[in-house]
């Protein structure tokens, strides 16, 4: 299976059906079988938001071509622009001509910064797809401990509202700080509304408009201490575009931008005008950034709990293995008992963390 890019106008990205029609014809003319479309909304790396009208039109067109659609909303809770017209697909999927031709995806990894949970959601009205996913779950199930933790975590509405408010505020501060300095450095970019990154045009710094020149610039920037993602690695069709992630600490972002200034001044290219020195630390990044710092102790407490539970799981696994070697008569009962004990501890600690009732565990 291969993924192919459907090009969009980077000045104003949209889900242009004519572009998808053109791409579909291109592959059919070459006898390439096309099975579906993937929509990332909010988009990665562009950071733009596609409104529900665009999504509905594209999904209906795809169904008319007997294509399936995967809608990935992994950044759904990271839309930081209050003017963004974002609605989750789950709010309007019933308006589609063929909802059963669309599968929705979301996970904990981006919005909550816990990729190690390996916890995600797939929503589909297709009985066939749900049956297949049910069988696949046997081979890669979500840990019962993670499921239990997730239930407790998502049940604390007050904490979640405070967290989302803090997350969006800090993402907006970091984004505005980043693009402010892009403007100072005269680096074009795609205005973002959500997600963790900015897609920026460094093509004027290329020795030639080629993928080879793009990778050469990437190496030079990386050697200078700034790690960007080349557009070529994200199937961008225009050389010179790079993704910059701003979802880091404010100190890291300030230092990264300072290094970018230094690098752009040292680029040997007649198209680049000299860039004056700018006092990075006088940006708006420090203004009201510390909203919601009371979240940090709970976050650190959660990490400790998770680490202890991983250790407990290892112990249970070793004990179960020993029981299996000795006999299988009471194994099922004993395993269930061990797992229930661990589960009870996780419930207790998760509840303490989420409701601020921290207790020292012996």
Automatic annotation (TrEMBL):
GO terms for biological process: amino acid metabolic process. CDD domains: AAT_like. GO terms for molecular function: pyridoxal phosphate binding; transaminase activity. Keywords: Pyridoxal phosphate. Residues 11-260 form the Aminotransferase class I/classII large domain. Coiled coil: none annotated. SUPFAM superfamilies: PLP-dependent transferases. It comes from the Eukaryota. Gene3D superfamilies: Aspartate Aminotransferase, domain 1, Type I PLP-dependent aspartate aminotransferase-like (Major domain). PANTHER family: AMINOTRANSFERASE CLASS I_CLASSII DOMAIN-CONTAINING PROTEIN (PTHR43795:SF39), BIFUNCTIONAL ASPARTATE AMINOTRANSFERASE AND GLUTAMATE/ASPARTATE-PREPHENATE AMINOTRANSFERASE-RELATED (PTHR43795). This is Aminotransferase class I/classII large domain-containing protein. It comes from Caenorhabditis auriculariae.
């Amino acid at each position: 299976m291969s993924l192919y890019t459907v090009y969009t106008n980077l000045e104003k990205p949209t889900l242009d059906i004519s572009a998808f029609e053109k791409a579909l014809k291109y592959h059919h003319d070459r006898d390439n079988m096309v099975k579906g479309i993937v929509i990332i909304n909010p988009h990665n790396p562009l950071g733009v938001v596609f409104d529900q009208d665009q999504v509905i039109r594209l999904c209906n067109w795809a169904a008319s071509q007997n294509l399936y659609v995967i809608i990935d909303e992994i950044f759904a809770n990271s839309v930081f622009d209050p003017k963004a017209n974002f609605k989750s697909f789950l709010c309007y999927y019933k308006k589609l001509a063929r909802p059963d031709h669309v599968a929705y995806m979301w996970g904990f990894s981006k919005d909550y910064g816990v990729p190690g949970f390996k916890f995600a959601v797939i929503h589909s009205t297709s009985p066939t797809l749900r049956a297949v996913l049910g069988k696949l779950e046997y081979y890669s199930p979500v840990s019962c401990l993670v499921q239990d933790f997730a239930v407790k975590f998502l049940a604390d509405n007050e904490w979640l509202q405070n967290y989302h408010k803090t997350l969006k505020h800090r993402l907006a501060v970091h984004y505005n700080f980043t693009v402010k300095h892009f403007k100072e450095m005269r680096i074009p970019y795609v205005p973002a509304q959500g997600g963790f990154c900015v897609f920026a045009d460094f093509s004027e710094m290329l020795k030639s408009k080629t993928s080879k020149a793009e990778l050469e610039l990437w190496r030079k920037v990386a050697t200078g201490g700034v790690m960007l993602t080349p557009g070529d690695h994200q199937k961008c069709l225009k050389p010179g575009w790079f993704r910059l992630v701003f979802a880091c600490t404010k100190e890291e972002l300030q230092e990264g931008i300072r290094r970018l200034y230094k690098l752009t001044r040292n680029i040997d290219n007649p198209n680049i005008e000299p860039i004056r020195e700018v006092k990075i630390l006088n940006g708006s990044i420090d203004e009201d950034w510390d909203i919601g710092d009371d979240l940090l102790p709970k976050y650190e407490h959660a990490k400790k709990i998770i680490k202890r539970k991983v250790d407990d799981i290892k112990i249970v696994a070793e004990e179960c293995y020993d029981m299996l070697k000795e006999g299988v008569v009471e194994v099922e009962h004993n395993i269930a008992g061990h797992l229930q004990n661990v589960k009870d501890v996780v419930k207790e600690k998760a509840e303490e963390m989420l409701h601020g009732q921290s207790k020292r565990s012996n």
